[in-house]
Amino acid sequence: MHGLGQILLQSRADVLEAWLERLRETVPGVQPASLQLLKLELGTLIEKLTGYFLTDDDDGAGPAFKSVEEQAATTSAACARDGLTPMETATLILSLKAIAGELLDRETSAKATDLYRMRTALDAVVDRLALVTFAAFVETREEIIKRQGRALLDLATPALPIWRHIILMPLVGIIDTQRARQVMEWLLEALSREEARIAILDVTGVPLIDSRVALHLTKTVEAARLLGSQVIVTGISPDAAQTLVKLDVDLSNMITRGSLRSGLAEAFRLLGQQSKGTTETMI
Amino acid sequence: MTKSRPPDRPEPDPENSGTGMRAVVEILVQDDILRARQASRTAAAALGFTTVDQTRLATVVSELTRNALTYAGGGECRVLTRLTALERSVVIEVEDSGPGIPDVPEALTRGYSTRQSLGLGLTAVRKLMDDLTIETRPGRTLVRTGMTRRR
Amino acid sequence: MRVPILRLGRVLLTSLPADLTDQQVMDLQIDALALIQAGKADGLVIDITAADVVDSYMARILSETAKMVTIMGGVAVLAGMQPAVALTLVEMGRGMIDMETAFDLEGGVAKVGRMVASRGGRHDEVPTA
């Protein structure tokens, strides 16, 4: 498709301008900074496309097409990062068909059959790019989601030494298995480090307490017991209490209190009990 | 026009990749269990595993090597490490030439035991590790288990 | 080498080394039970601060020792477990350590004191009416 390459080469600036115009139409709220970045990406994509059509290898297997595909993927990733929807991204790539179509319509020097062939070739390439774009878009989004997930997990859950021998750990957010493990690890380390006998685990900020969360809580309580410390779970909502009873979760080994305040009172009561047994009586 | 953005994913680093044998410990007496435990801990520490993961691994080695000593009169414990661009793993292999485990699925359920504590040991291994495979027949048993973490 | 058991008043104290063979754990059980039987103590505190691995075998022997001590009229407390060990034991399954625990040696001795008091006092004292 040498002819198509020549045409693109001559009017790539126009094509880019028309493309950006489409972008502004498709995504009305696009930020100027994003627009600048996407202009760069789309410009590169046109360069690569032009290069591909100029090489005359239009079976789509050569290195020239590979680099077009790669650039399409990069462009799509940029779209994903700048918050475009998959729909908008796909529309943007596919709009190249219409833009180039208009360009070919204006081209009067070529024969009608040639124009038709150029158009079919271009359509095939753009369709393929749309697929590549979609795959790259999904991949980038997944990468972003994974990274955000990790960032959430890494949000340190603080263990605050609020009194001699008492630490407080407020839990906020959804507790899944991975996070539950992490919380348990942090809690035990904090107990050991602060030489705490009591940990108050406040779950007011946990939106959902089901049997799985309850299981993790039970394990944490048991692990703390092995350390020689006790855990008081506070902030269990009426909803959570209803769920736990309906699910028949065994919490008999767990000290639970409705509010942080009553949990703190219980902590002091337990500490008082502990200090009663003195070393002297046995020596 | 040059690309302004660095690639999203790091390229695999051939210098820091590959599988390596970190230690081979012959299990003949009780002291060898301790040596195998120590070897696994050292390998895990070299890979930057956390204290908790090191403890999980050492506990698993303890269970498996004791099984080999109790039921097969001994065996061999191998500690392998594997590094890829994205992951690091420690793999433990314990091999013996004992009578074999007659019913693996049953040995993996808690409480089952041909002599005292085998069932519990294997269940614990499965819970502490990421994968566990058991090849067994009379005369040869190989238990392979791995722990994998992100780099 | 046998793990030494110290006596402090009416409490037996023992501290397990980092690396402990199965035989040493069994010997410890035998020695501790003999001392309780001889009426030399009411309680046993096993300190495992140094232990970096407690596997299912050791967990079972320790739990059994505690039960045996109880049957012989004494009380037993496990003290000073490392966080990583506690975590591993909990992940291995429920109830691996079936005995009383304390944060450290001091807490262990105090707990033995409380348990003996709630049981009705020391074995070498004539109860006062």
TrEMBL record, chain A:
<dbReference type="InterPro" id="IPR025751">
    <property type="entry name" value="RsbRD_N_dom"/>
</dbReference>
<dbReference type="InterPro" id="IPR036513">
    <property type="entry name" value="STAS_dom_sf"/>
</dbReference>
<dbReference type="Pfam" id="PF14361">
    <property type="entry name" value="RsbRD_N"/>
</dbReference>
<protein>
    <submittedName>
        <fullName>RsbT co-antagonist protein RsbR</fullName>
    </submittedName>
</protein>
<feature type="domain" description="STAS">
    <location>
        <begin position="156"/>
        <end position="271"/>
    </location>
</feature>
<dbReference type="InterPro" id="IPR002645">
    <property type="entry name" value="STAS_dom"/>
</dbReference>
<dbReference type="Pfam" id="PF01740">
    <property type="entry name" value="STAS"/>
</dbReference>
<keyword id="KW-0597">Phosphoprotein</keyword>
<dbReference type="InterPro" id="IPR051932">
    <property type="entry name" value="Bact_StressResp_Reg"/>
</dbReference>
Automatic annotation (TrEMBL), chain B:
<feature type="compositionally biased region" description="Basic and acidic residues">
    <location>
        <begin position="1"/>
        <end position="12"/>
    </location>
</feature>
<dbReference type="InterPro" id="IPR050267">
    <property type="entry name" value="Anti-sigma-factor_SerPK"/>
</dbReference>
<feature type="domain" description="Histidine kinase/HSP90-like ATPase">
    <location>
        <begin position="52"/>
        <end position="151"/>
    </location>
</feature>
<dbReference type="InterPro" id="IPR003594">
    <property type="entry name" value="HATPase_dom"/>
</dbReference>
<feature type="region of interest" description="Disordered">
    <location>
        <begin position="1"/>
        <end position="20"/>
    </location>
</feature>
<keyword id="KW-0723">Serine/threonine-protein kinase</keyword>
<keyword id="KW-0808">Transferase</keyword>
<protein>
    <submittedName>
        <fullName>Serine/threonine-protein kinase RsbT</fullName>
    </submittedName>
</protein>
<dbReference type="InterPro" id="IPR036890">
    <property type="entry name" value="HATPase_C_sf"/>
</dbReference>
<dbReference type="Pfam" id="PF13581">
    <property type="entry name" value="HATPase_c_2"/>
</dbReference>
<dbReference type="GO" id="GO:0004674">
    <property type="term" value="F:protein serine/threonine kinase activity"/>
</dbReference>
<keyword id="KW-0418">Kinase</keyword>
From TrEMBL, chain C:
<keyword id="KW-0812">Transmembrane</keyword>
<dbReference type="Pfam" id="PF01740">
    <property type="entry name" value="STAS"/>
</dbReference>
<dbReference type="InterPro" id="IPR036513">
    <property type="entry name" value="STAS_dom_sf"/>
</dbReference>
<keyword id="KW-0472">Membrane</keyword>
<feature type="domain" description="STAS">
    <location>
        <begin position="44"/>
        <end position="93"/>
    </location>
</feature>
<keyword id="KW-1133">Transmembrane helix</keyword>
<dbReference type="InterPro" id="IPR051932">
    <property type="entry name" value="Bact_StressResp_Reg"/>
</dbReference>
<protein>
    <submittedName>
        <fullName>RsbT antagonist protein RsbS</fullName>
    </submittedName>
</protein>
<dbReference type="InterPro" id="IPR002645">
    <property type="entry name" value="STAS_dom"/>
</dbReference>
<feature type="transmembrane region" description="Helical">
    <location>
        <begin position="68"/>
        <end position="90"/>
    </location>
</feature>
